[in-house]
Amino acid sequence: MMSSIVTTAPNATVSLPALFSPTADASRRFVEFFTANIRNPNTRKAYARAASQFATWCEEVGLTDLHDIEPVHVAAYVETLLTRLASPSVKLHLAGIRMLFDWLVIGQVIATNPASSVRGPKHSVKKGKTPVLTAEEARALIDSIDITTPMGLRDRALIGLMVYTFARVGAALKMKVEDVYVQGRRTWVRLHEKGGKQHEMPCHHNLDEYLHAYIDGAALIGAAKAPLFRSATPHTGQITERPMTQADVYRMIGRRALAAGIQTRIGCHSFRATGITEYLKNGGKLEVAQQMANHESARTTGLYDRRNDQVSLDEVERIVI
């Protein structure tokens, strides 16, 4: 059962499962885990869901006291998760539970961490699942956008930004107008990445054109501190004062892809993968792509490399029947 509700972020709440709030100290420590310890809102949401679902399972099997939970119980829960979730999701759940118990141990709520010795499912990925576009498809999509309205200019600039700088959609949507600037006679962009990091990139000449056309067309000059990418009124195509959300971008991409006749089911991340793949296909170096994409590991960048997809297709076509 959920004993109460606590605020973990502005306009967001997380329930306190009864399992994790038997005392005032345990409740306080649970709340601190999601407020003081977990800063990323997406991680906070995922770990809160993991804690809530684990607590519900414990209640269902008769575990109502934190001190009664043992590694075998956590292992049994992991096996239960594997019947309905993919391995990466199970590993995420286990990571959240393990970190929460660690936090409770440090706070002297419990003596040991029952999840510390439990191993998650093995999962090895050599190629990402993000759908990518060919260079021709990406070009056709960009060229199909009607740029006679500020909304069209915005969409072209945003898609171009993700393609030419490998930007995450979250980093793009955090940009202010002042994050497009000129340095050394070249336009640069400042991306606001995860963890409060700033990542600066010079603009491809096409992106340079797209960004300045949008800023001029939407009359954003002089609004340095205002959001760069804003929502728009569908019927007029005029830009509003509200910043775009990731859901806005996802819907926009769906509309633009449909209008361009693209059948690949793409999302926000597809443009990042498309840009990295095309960069590598044209002789770019993996370590430079890693730096451009602001990845901690070249292995992560390699997941976006789809050059072998075309090789495989060419080989399949050798089967002449």
Write the layout of secondary structure elements.
Layout: E1 2-9, E2 12-17, H1 24-37, H2 41-60, H3 71-82, H4 87-106, H5 135-144, H6 150-165, H7 169-173, E3 180-183, E4 186-192, E5 198-202, H8 205-217, E6 230-232, E7 239-243, H9 246-259, H10 270-281, H11 286-293, H12 298-302, H13 307-316
Antiparallel strand pairs: 1-2, 3-4, 4-5, 6-7
Protein name: Site-specific recombinase XerC
Family: Belongs to the 'phage' integrase family.
Domain Core-binding (CB): 21-105
Please provide a written account of the structure:
It comes from Candidatus Accumulibacter phosphatis. GO terms for molecular function: DNA binding. Residues 128-318 form the Tyr recombinase domain. Pfam families: Phage_int_SAM_1, Phage_integrase. InterPro entries: CB (IPR044068), DNA_brk_join_enz (IPR011010), Integrase-like_cat_sf (IPR013762), Integrase_catalytic (IPR002104), Integrase_recombinase_N (IPR010998), Integrase_SAM-like_N (IPR004107), Tyrosine_recombinase_XerCD (IPR050090). The chain is mainly alpha-helical. The chain folds into two domains: 2-106, no CATH class; 135-316, Intergrase catalytic core (hpI Integrase, Chain A), CATH 1.10.443. 50% of the residues lie in helices and 12% in strands. It has 13 helices and seven strands. It has helices at residues 24-37, 41-60, 71-82, 87-106, 135-144, 150-165, 169-173, 205-217, 246-259, 270-281, 286-293, 298-302, 307-316; strands at residues 2-9, 12-17, 180-183, 186-192, 198-202, 230-232, 239-243. It has a three-stranded antiparallel β-sheet with strand order 3-4-5. A two-stranded antiparallel ribbon has the order 1-2. The chain has a two-stranded antiparallel sheet with strand order 6-7. α6 (150-165) runs antiparallel to α8. The longest helix is centred in the first third of the chain and has 20 residues, at 41-60. It is globular, with a radius of gyration of 24 Å. The termini are far apart. Mean pLDDT is 86; it is low at 1-12.
